[in-house]
Amino acid sequence: MAFTGLKSVVLCLSLLALPALAADLSTAPYIRAVEKKPSLLQMLAAAWRPKSVHAAAAPTPAQTARTRHAAAAPRKPKAPPAATAAPETPVAQPVTVGAAATPPAQLSEVELAAKGLLLFNDASLSGGSKASCATCHFSTGHTNNKTYVGLDVVADGDPNGRNTPTLWGVGERSVFGWQGQAATLEDSIRGIIVNRMKGPEPSPETLAALVAYVRTLNYPANWQVKEDGTPRPDASAAVKRGFDLYVGDGGCGTCHQLPSFDKKSKDDIGTGGKFKVPTLHAAASTAPYFHDGRTASLRDAVKLMWEFYAKKMESRLPTEAELDDLTAYVGAL
Ligand code: HEC
Ligand code: HEC
Fold first, then answer.
1. Residue of the CA atom closest to atom 37 of ligand 1
2. Which residues approach ligand 2 with their CB closer than 6 A?
3. Least crowded by CB within 10 Å, which of 175, 210, 253, 270?
4. b/e per residue, 235-254, with b = 16+ CB within 10 A?
């Protein structure tokens, strides 16, 4: 397909999807997360653009699954057609209405993602139309900061409760669910629809569309910390000191490994069993913390983690000032 034609499809799909996005946002009092959310155009552009960040990493099961998708619905060419034409600012491009009138025979990843956005807001995926994905993964796939058993909100810290994780960056993960119970995004989403939402068995098309959509959910741009996890030159002094503790005496980097801030395996850190090492990206707005939401403040979560590490390694405890610095760094991710 001609490059301008493709861009037109991206644009037209964005316009089509806007009302659904608005529906999601209209219910979002969580202003901070809303401000940080990626724009729909960024999401669609991200869906279309080849990912470069972790291109060097070995393929994960999730990425393998993505390849399967690619076979079903061929992705766009891997490299942008011309360096000068990279779609960084799709808004500036003219809209050619005619081009969108002749859609490709198979759904592209972008079209699938646009369909997935509608499904993400569709309560009929759940038994009795009680909830859509956006009910819990509020603010464009982030989190409503609540802890659930099934579709029921429970007290934070309830041992059976599971706190809603953010879906930002989910396309880069390779274990899903707090206990790492699903190895692919497809399995994870299917399990949630059937078990948590008590909805009808989703069709392969529905699953593919939801997977394509959640893969477009990226972390917001970060002015303090680079993609490799190191502080930028103009980051605050506290964030810089916090980084040194993170990779140094705090021991955090041994489990929440840079640059993804997670790990592919599970650990028992004394919270009631083995849980996956979650990413710390966007942690400032994902309270409460841990699988059961037992800790309301990020500083308390950081403190609990350092105390665990110090006990395990028989190493030193942090000072109050060090806890502040480490919390500043983790809160900046
Ligand atoms: C009632 C609230 C709720 C609804 C509705 C909901 N989720 Fe979730 N979601 C959660 C919770 C809680 C978890 C953690 C579950 C666990 O670990 O057992 C989760 C986990 C996930 C994960 C795994 C993320 C990770 O990093 O481990 C994905 C993917 C996901 N949800 C996608 C969806 C999609 C897509 C829908 C709609 C079909 C949906 N969710 C509907 C609350 C919800
Ligand atoms: C031995 C591995 C390990 C080490 C070392 C470790 N963590 Fe964790 N961390 C985990 C696991 C596993 C969980 C999830 C436990 C749960 O959900 O019950 C977790 C959860 C967290 C959470 C909650 C995240 C969320 O989304 O709810 C934060 C914050 C955190 N760790 C920060 C840190 C910091 C800061 C350090 C260094 C002081 C650190 N961790 C060291 C394994 C580790």
1. 133
2. 178, 250-252, 254-256, 267, 269, 271, 275, 277-278, 280, 283, 286, 289-291, 301-302, 305-306, 309, 326, 330
3. 270
4. beebbbbbbebbeebbbbee
